[in-house]
Amino acid sequence: MQTRIPARFQPTEGDSLSDMLKKYFERVRFRKNKRQADISRDAWLDDSYVSRLISGERSNPSRDALILLGAWGLELAVHELDELLIQAEYKPLVLPASLR
Q: 5-15: per-residue pLDDT in tens?
């Protein structure tokens, strides 16, 4: 049985990068019961850096940091990671349509 994710964890149009990160972060924590430390470790990023990104204290993360956080830490689908990259004004991942 799949758990329905509350709407408050879904990104909406007009969200800032910080808002999107916070919603993705909470969604993964809700769905997979992962702690911030686990997300940071899985993404190979420092826990304090991830904390500052999520809280909005740190803005403008590098594309590489967003890819690590999104793909490994938050376990986002490719289209969700692309949304995050585009929101941060980076180019989306370049993948064949068959892999999307």
A: 555 556 666 67
